[in-house]
Amino acid sequence: MVFEQLEEKKEFTSSEIQIANYILENPLETVELTASELGEKSYTSKSTVLRLCKKLGFSGYNELLRKLELEINEKNRLMALLDKEPVNKDSSFRDIVNIIPSVYDQAITNTKMMLDYKSMNRVINRLKETTKLDIYGLGITYSCATAAMFKFLSIGIECTAQTGINEHYIMATKKQKNRAAIIVSFTGENPIMIKTAKYLKGIGTYIIGIGSSESDKLKKECDEYIDVYSKHLVMSMEVLTPFISITYIFDLLFSALLVSDFDNNLKYSLDVIDYENIFKRNNY
Hints:
Helix content: 55-70%
Number of helices: 13
Strand order of the largest sheet: 2-1-3-4-5
Oligomer: single chain
């Protein structure tokens, strides 16, 4: 996200730091300025502004402005819902009832803004062809994996949830065609998950990573990597943000696969209803 890059100032020159500081201190004014005007305001130059745009990954100044405006609008909306410290010792249960939806909203909105649609489409297309899917997680990410497993099983995808490397299981099933693995890590640098990814990569498994973009340790072992929002965590509620973000990604993948075979999945659902009705009649 642009504001995070501007705050980090990674490998910025002194002139680029001046521009970044000006934007951070005057975001609303910045979106009304031309590149030349921003150069003047930050005591730099138009060429330095354009160079910074390239460094931030934008094709030009107008693209930077559009992204800034989008993030300003989202930030204003979210900040109205959620302060940095949403709960304190005086928070009542009624306060908490109103706070939790805003935590969810922040996690989902920021993850949505980080989505790479081309990468997501590649993942979805690969999962459409997958006949064996293993999801790996540890601790709370394992609970994400098991919940996702049940969803994928419900639409006919053979799926398991694993807590780490099970070499015998992997070797016993490695010849199965169209196999894929999803590896989940809040930080993207869990050593067990990285070791698992390397092991699976070694036998040619297609690997999808889901986790934070803070580290590239897991990312570089994966064929595709889906970034989730997990920064600016709040107090003891820090588990909620990445958990909701990862659950949101799994729900996107599940829903896309359900829609891709909608008629058959509808038929399966109707068959379940019919069977339940027959079962009730025969047992009551």
